[in-house]
């Protein structure tokens, strides 16, 4: 099914009307002409108004059921999610940047649906486009048989590529730190009052990187340097490709359970330390539904391969790293969560051969935390606390490793 509608997009892109349009400018979504609504007893209609026509493709994914529409890049500014989604058969919708030059719209299906018709019409006078899809109910077996992301150059996530640091000199080598600003692109993370987690964490990651580089003795690589989607699996691959000594994922979630507030540091565990941590892990992994991956059975496979790697050596080093970072931030005034050290099954921490932690700077659902995270001076203090924690952990780790080697 996905290849059929990809072909339709290409045929459309080659016709005379399309060639007459100027594709140099970014296509914009037209919110007042865009709607997802129920149609009939088992159908759904998707209407997308665009300032100009763009190539697109449609495919489905299972476990859970999703329908994905990829476009040559679209500016989604002004599209309100609640006004856009009017269908009771679609449980959720996400849209935004995916890979450079491309955008993605993901429909979370309440039940299996298939594309019945797809049509993009171009206004010959204005060049504006209207994409219309009709979706109809289908059975589980038929949906599963046609589901899957097509592998097509230019449309899909590129292979991990990072600039490897120069070979290290003999003697005391720099600590190579992989900073992972959470979310990005189509995945905004937590959103509160027009502020989103992905933007705040990218800003903080850049500030922390600058501090570490100025201090000397550190090599720093980021999993993303702009507003780009990076899958959880790819973040781990980037850390391995960079030869990272430490992996620090940066987040600031929104969570109502227990009125969460204050900074906390998470390490990996199959059993979450509390209900709030369990819900956070579920939310983080759910963000990877947009990566075009069939998730059926993947968790067990990933866990079997990664969690067993260097388990005996890495786990105590990771625990010590979490404690050192929490102490460093606390010494800079925090404020820290009442339980600053927590555990949960975050997939992004499953590189078991690299000490990996997830730092929650705070919770955007807490007015106090939100105000702090938006404050450059407060962020500078937290960056200093993380730096001091890394320094202490590195010194202690060198001593312990030297004793083991004797």
Tell me what the structure shows.
The protein is an alpha/beta fold and 406 residues long. The chain folds into 2 domains: 145 residues, Immunoglobulin-like; 231 residues, Aminopeptidase (3-Layer(aba) Sandwich), CATH 3.40.630. Helices cover 34% and strands 27% of the residues. The chain is built from 11 helices and 19 strands. The strands form 5 sheets. The protein has a 6-stranded mixed beta sheet, with helices on both faces. Strands 7-2-3-11-10 form a 5-stranded mixed beta sheet. A 4-stranded antiparallel beta sheet has the order 4-5-9-8. Helix 5 crosses helix 11 and helix 9 packs antiparallel against helix 11. It is elongated. About 8% of the residues have low confidence.
Task: Please provide a brief summary of the model.
The protein is α/β, with parallel strands linked by helices and 406 residues long.
């Amino acid at each position: 099914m996905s290849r059929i509608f990809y072909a339709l997009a290409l045929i459309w892109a080659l016709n005379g009307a399309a060639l007459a349009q100027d594709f140099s400018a970014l296509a914009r979504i037209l919110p007042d002409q865009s709607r997802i609504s129920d149609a009939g007893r088992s159908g759904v209609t998707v209407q997308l108004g665009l300032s100009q026509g763009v190539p697109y493709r449609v495919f489905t994914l299972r476990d859970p059921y999703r329908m994905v529409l990829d476009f040559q890049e679209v500016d989604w500014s002004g599209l309100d999610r609640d006004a856009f989604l009017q269908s009771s058969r679609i449980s959720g919708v996400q849209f935004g940047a995916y890979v450079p030059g491309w955008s993605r719209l993901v429909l979370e299906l309440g039940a299996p649906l298939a594309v019945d018709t797809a049509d993009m019409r171009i206004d010959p006078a204005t060049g504006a486009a209207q994409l219309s899809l009709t979706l109809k109910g289908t059975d589980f077996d038929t949906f599963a048989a046609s589901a899957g992301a097509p592998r097509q150059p230019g449309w899909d996530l590129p292979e991990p590529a990072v600039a490897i640091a120069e070979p290290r000199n003999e003697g005391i080598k720099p600590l190579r730190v992989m900073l992972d600003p959470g979310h990005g692109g189509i995945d905004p993370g937590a959103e509160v009052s027009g502020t989103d987690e992905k933007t705040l964490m990218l800003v903080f990651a850049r500030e922390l990187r600058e501090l570490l580089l100025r201090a000397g003795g550190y090599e720093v690589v980021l999993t993303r340097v702009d507003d780009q989607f990076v899958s959880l699996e790819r973040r781990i691959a980037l850390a391995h490709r960079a030869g990272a000594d430490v992996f620090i994922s940066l987040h600031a979630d929104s969570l109502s359970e227990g009125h969460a507030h204050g900074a906390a540091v998470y390490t990996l565990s199959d059993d979450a330390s509390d209900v709030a941590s369990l819900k956070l892990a579920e939310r983080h992994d759910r963000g990877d539904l947009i990566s075009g991956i069939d998730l059926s059975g993947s968790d067990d496979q990933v866990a079997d391969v990664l969690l067993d790697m260097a388990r005996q050596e890495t786990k105590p080093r990771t625990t010590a790293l979490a404690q050192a970072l929490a102490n460093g931030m606390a010494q800079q005034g925090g404020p820290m969560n009442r339980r600053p050290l927590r555990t949960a099954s975050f997939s992004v921490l499953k590189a078991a051969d690299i000490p990996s932690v997830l730092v929650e700077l705070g919770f955007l659902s807490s007015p106090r935390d939100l105000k702090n995270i938006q404050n450059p001076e407060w962020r500078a203090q937290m960056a200093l606390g993380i730096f001091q924690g890394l320094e202490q952990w590195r010194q202690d780790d060198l001593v312990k490793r030297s004793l083991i080697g004797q």
